Amino acid sequence: MRRISKDGMAEDNVASIPDQHGETTAEARAVAVAATIARKAVEQADHAMRNWTDPTPGPIHIGSPEHLRMFSNMLLQTHNPYKPAVIDWPQLAPDALRRVTSLPIWDIAVQTEGRASVRVHAFAGTVRDPLLRSALEMDGDEEARHKVVLSKLVQAYGIPLEPEPAYPVPADPEWGWLATGYSECIDSFAAFGLFAAAKQSGFFPEALVETFEPVIQEEGRHILFFVNWAAWYRRSLPWWRRPFYTLKVWRVWVHLIRERIGIAKGIDTGDSVQDANFPMNASGALTESLTPGALIDLCLVENERRMAGYDARLLRPDFVPRIARLVRRFVK
């Protein structure tokens, strides 16, 4: 039998698969070939999700139609077509299951993804450019898929959830999109480090880490798409509209900062508090062995690693990493 190794190289002289009588069966060979093809398809989709370069040579002017095409195609062409309904959630040992089910994040995580999907789709409905609208719809669909993944996870491990609230369509779709995008820039940066910490410490078993990994990488794609959209959109506006847009962005940031300060003080700031609670609720359980400085370093390293495979001409999310580096100077 001819087998394909993990690195994609063909291996010859591999023993055939015997049946119970010691004879090779066509059925056993077919099962083995199908399993190999399925595994290679998963590996190829995962690699394509993490590595993408636009074939157009030369520099790209930020704010140009070429820039719009590039960051839209990045999101569309790196889509991983996995289906949450067929994810084979690994069985967990009792102690690992206890750690996973004890995390106070699952309600918040499900609700955050559900709210994000509604907001992104609402904004997509206001966009005229067909390519950009397709990319935004893909973004919203992936947020909805994250919600399904999380729902399947809690179902597989018997984690009880509170009834989901309604997710109203925002009165200002652009505000909802901006709040979602910038909130994800904050939360994804933290989640990259927290997920790596959980993996390194063994808090999450390796099998569960590998199963959940695509969701974390997709969030990296989302914030990469968002920051490029934000730069493109601002430069595409007439000069007289840019101050109003900049003011709206600053209002969004003030809203997000006040939201997180309220959480730190234990103040309920409303339904949207769920968006900010996810990394804060997870951090205490996942980083007991890390100092604050080590956690910041890990977040910075993971952020760089997850963005490294995409076209270098695309802008990277840099505001939160810059703040993190500034804070790191004062943290021993």
Topology:
Blueprint: E1 3-4, E2 10-11, H1 26-50, H2 65-77, H3 94-102, H4 106-124, H5 130-156, H6 173-201, H7 206-236, H8 242-264, H9 273-286, H10 292-307, H11 319-328
Antiparallel strand pairs: 1-2
Helix share of residues?
A: 55-70%
Uncertain stretches of 5 or more adjacent residues:
1-17, 267-278
Structural class: mainly alpha
Q: Which of globular, elongated, flat, extended, rod-shaped describes the shape?
A: globular
The rounded Rg comes to: 22 Å
What's the total helix number? 11
Identify the strand order in the major beta sheet. 1-2
Structurally, the number of domains stands at: 2
CATH fold type of the largest domain: Ribonucleotide Reductase, subunit A
Roughly how many Å apart are the termini?
A: 57 Å
Give the ordered list of helices and strands: EEHHHHHHHHHHH
InterPro entries: Ferritin-like_SF
Protein name: Ferritin-like domain-containing protein
Region (Disordered): 1-25
Organism: Cupriavidus pampae
Report on this model:
- By secondary structure, the chain is mostly helical.
- It folds into two domains: 1-50; 59-328, Orthogonal Bundle (Ribonucleotide Reductase, subunit A).
- 65% of the residues lie in helices and 1% in strands.
- It is built from eleven helices and two strands; from the N terminus they run ββααααααααααα.
- It has a two-stranded antiparallel sheet.
- A hairpin with a 5-residue loop joins β1 (3-4) and β2 (10-11).
- α2 (65-77) runs parallel beside α5 (130-156), α2 (65-77) packs antiparallel against α7 (206-236) and α6 (173-201) runs antiparallel to α7.
- The termini are far apart.
- 30% of the residues are buried.
- Residues 1-25 are annotated as: Disordered.
- InterPro entries: Ferritin-like_SF.
- This is Ferritin-like domain-containing protein.
